[in-house]
Amino acid sequence: MDITAVERLVTLVESSQVHKITIEDHDQSISVVNRSHATKSPTQNNIDSSLNSTRDKNTSSFDTNNQDLKDLESVQVLSLYVGYMHLSADGATDNLMKKGDAIEVEQTIGFVEVLTKLLPIISDKSGVVSEVLVEEGQVVEYGQPILQLAE
Q1: Alpha-carbon distance 62 to 73, whole Å?
Q2: Distance of CA 30 to the CA centre of its chain
Q3: pLDDT band at residue 83 under the 50/70/90 scheme
Q4: In degrees rounded to 5, what are phi and psi of residue 92?
Q5: How far apart are CA 67 and CA 14, in angstroms?
Q6: Which of 3, 70, 103, 118 has the highest Cβ tally under 10 A?
Q7: Exposed, middle or buried by CB within 10 Å (0-12, 13-18, 19+), for 9?
Q8: Which residues pair with 128 in a beta bridge?
Q9: Is pLDDT above 50 for 62?
């Protein structure tokens, strides 16, 4: 793969709504992850506008409940794939993380087996693992919480 093709790929992913793309060429591969959340669809903009107008009309209890939901989401690491969860790299070694472990952003916390490929679950948050919410071999869905973190 030449650097020009990689630069074009990065530019295309940044300007799209694609979250992650992996390109393989013989023995080389590259994954590009779009971490920018600046691009919102028209539907998301309408939802944001509705939430803002509803928030203005309601009492502070709405804000409190909404904040509780955000707090809950902010301390969970979610699966980005549908498949079988693997907490270790090969099933024979120790789990990559357990309760009480400190994890960092971009740390591999496990793998999801999708069509015989092991795709890594990369943490987008840091903190201390307060609870592992899945078991080895369990089927996980997209967006399913994997870990509960204490910040």
Answers
A1: 17
A2: 18
A3: very high
A4: -105, -20
A5: 29
A6: 103
A7: middle
A8: 102, 150
A9: no
Side chain identity at residue 78, one-letter code: L
Separation CA 39–CA 60 (nearest Å) = 29
- CB-based contact 120:142 (threshold 8 Å): no
Q: In the 3-class helix/strand/coil scheme, how is the chain assigned residue by residue?
A: CCHHHHHHHHHHHHCCCCCEEEEEECCEEEEEECCCCCCCCHHHHHHHHHHHHHHHHCCHHHHHHHHHHHHHHHCEEECCCCEEEECCCCCCCCCCCCCCCEECCCCEEEEEEECCEEEEEECCCCEEEEEECCCCCCEECCCCEEEEEEC
Query: Which residue has 């693992």 as its token pair?
Result: 129
- pTM summary value: 0.51
Give the distance, in angstroms, between the CA of residue 106 and the centroid of all CA atoms in the same chain.
Answer: 10
Sequence-separated contacts (24+) of 27-32 with Cβ below 8 Å? 28/1, 30/1, 30/6
Does residue 73 carry a pLDDT above 60? no
Q: What CA–CA distance (Å, rounded) separates 20 from 35?
A: 9
